[in-house]
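Exercise 3.2. Students should predict the tertiary structure of the chain below and write it as structure tokens, then compare their answer with the key that follows.

Predict this chain's 3D structure.
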Amino acid sequence: MRHDRDFAHEGPTFNHLKSAQPRASDAEIKQAIIAAVRFEDACFKYFVDDSTDYWERCVRAVARAAKQSPFYLAGTYQQARNDVAYYMK
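Answer key:
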């Protein structure tokens, strides 16, 4: 699994994005995939297992990651909060 994430920019994800964004250069697509993987990793890294409200911990984790990746759409951050909540249970 880790290998798939580490090389996402060279696999099927690249091909899907290339077909969806044919005008984007290969380098731009690879950079976008790498940035998305790093953002997701940061969301999970910043999740703190403490006694505060579970959803608030998810929101805080994504907010911290968003400071490093401020250019995503609001819906992306909402989905990231939902993903953190689902996978960190």
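Discussion points: The two ends are 20 Å apart (CA to CA). DSSP finds five helices and no strands in the chain.
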